[in-house]
Amino acid sequence: MQNKKNNHQKFLEHIKNGRFVLPYCNECRKTVWPPTNNCRFCLGNLAIKDYKNKKGQILEFFFNKMNNNDANPIMILVDLDQIILIGSLAEKKKNIGNIEGKLVRIKKCGFIDKKIFYEFQIVNN
Amino acid sequence: MSIVAGVTSEFRKGTDNDIPQIALESAVKLLKDTGFPRNLLDAVIVSSCSSDQYLSSIISEMLGVTPKISHRIDNLCNSGTNAIVSAFSYISSGLCDSALIIGVEKSNTVGKVLSTDLSRGQFTLPIFWGSIFKKIHMKRYGSTEEQICQIPVNNYLKAKYNKNAFNRHKSVNLEQVLSSRVLVEPLKLLECCSICEGSSSILLIAEEKLGFFKSRVISKIRNSELIPVLIKGIGQQTNSASFSNTVTDIFSKGSARVAARQAYTMARISPKDVDTAEIHDAFSILEIIGYEDLGFANKGEGGKFVYQDKISINLRGGIIGCGHPIGVTGIAQTVEIFEQLTGKKRHNLQFKNYPKIGLIHNLAAAGTSGTVLILEI
């Protein structure tokens, strides 16, 4: 008998396929992080919701110079429906100006060196 | 509840020694120095993030101890003080009269990265959240690069006087810290600790049994008498595991801020009563936030507190100066305060000759959990 996948497994599988989904509680109407089978606020049952087109906001941005390499992505701290994620910016230019508060959307997500990545792009209001 | 002995090994990198061998370095020295009878040890608790199995039983066997209670605690960088709190609970409950707590780590420990935290994306290393905390603190409260970079200067200087510190041979001045390589803006290389290996052991006993244990102790070492230091206050708080669920509240409801309030209440003291403190400075900014969470400085004023001269802070060199064997740190911090309070250690840089109250501040995983202990002699 095949085991039913839990929400954590589903999240990872969707990420693998480039889709960003999260469990959403239909009872208390909150997005749940990290992905689990029950709502961490009301222990209610969860449904999976697609967040790939959901807009988030840049809280902070950082120039990552760990590898002394110009290809290092710009690291951003994003509030996506009250889920705070550390992601990278698709824009690679260093003279991007102050992007704090800008709206972003997930452009790509997946795995890189066995680690999850979230790549965001700036979108217009 | 009293701490009666503590020993910390040298912190270093790259030896071939395995985890149990490293653990024995401090544990054997403690038992030999004190002459504490091994058959009177009721509990052996090991603090480590290594992937080695059944560590506490292996180490107990190697020490020739058959304790009632023996297990391992793993709570990332906060493991050490968690192990002390567990031992405290066993003794308070009457289940045990004595406990040997051993922190041990190798520099290749799996505890370096919390790979299960999905909110960090590809930015799994602690330096990424360290830089986030620094940038936000600077922007929100106006703390300056000079203030924050003074932390490594202070802690490297103190580490020079600590024979066990990983960075005991290194000196840095403010210019060097400010101009050191930027890893993730605004965090620089010399503001970060090094993960290393080592061990630290501490012996806890039931206060009312001190006379009994003293009568059974035979030590050949001078000045090895069991001097009790009381654990007067304990605070512990876990806010989350994910960075996502802690970062927005980190400066107002951080785990250490909550833990500090609990510890002060239990000890019936206030921050101004503290003479000496060990603050978890895995990154320079964490010491600044620590000043605020512990009530030494008002919120947002931690930067200015760097230049104070009332409370001795991180006299062993902190985590930046000593290095960070993850499961060891909380125990090594506690051993340091124990040695200062008992007068076993005197520092050139301490503000009071005879400190009476000391505090330990120990964090894990971006401050998602934290412990504060208050000791008194």
- End-to-end Cα distance of chain B, whole Å, is 12 Å
Helix amount of chain A: under 10%
Order of helices and strands of chain B: EHEHEHEHHHEEEHEHEHHEHHEE
The number of helices of chain B is 12
Query: What oligomerization state is this entry in?
Result: heterodimer
The strand count of chain B comes to 12
Largest interface: A-B, 24 and 29 residues
Write down the Rg of chain A.
16 Å
N-to-C terminal Cα separation of chain A, in Å? 48 Å
Number of separate strands of chain A: 7
What composes the largest sheet of chain A? 5 strands, mixed, barrel
- Averaged pLDDT of chain B, please? 93
Mean pLDDT of chain A: 88
Provide a count of the helices of chain A.
Answer: 1
Unreliable residue runs of chain B: none
Give the radius of gyration of chain B. 19 Å
Notes on the structure:
The complex is a heterodimer of chains A (125) and B (377). Helices cover 8% and strands 40% of the residues of chain A. Chain A is mainly beta and 125 residues long. In chain A, a hairpin with a 2-residue loop joins strand 4 and strand 5 (83-89). Chain A starts with 6 loop residues before the first helix and ends with a strand. The mean pLDDT of chain A is 88. Helices cover 34% and strands 18% of the residues of chain B. Chain B has helices spanning 19-34, 55-63, 79-93, 126-141, 145-159, 174-178, 210-216, 255-267, 284-293, 302-305, 318-322, 329-342; strands at residues 2-8, 43-47, 69-73, 98-105, 182-184, 187-188, 198-205, 229-238, 276-278, 312-313, 357-364, 369-376. Chain B has a 10-stranded mixed beta sheet, with helices on both faces. A two-stranded antiparallel ribbon of chain B has the order 5-6.
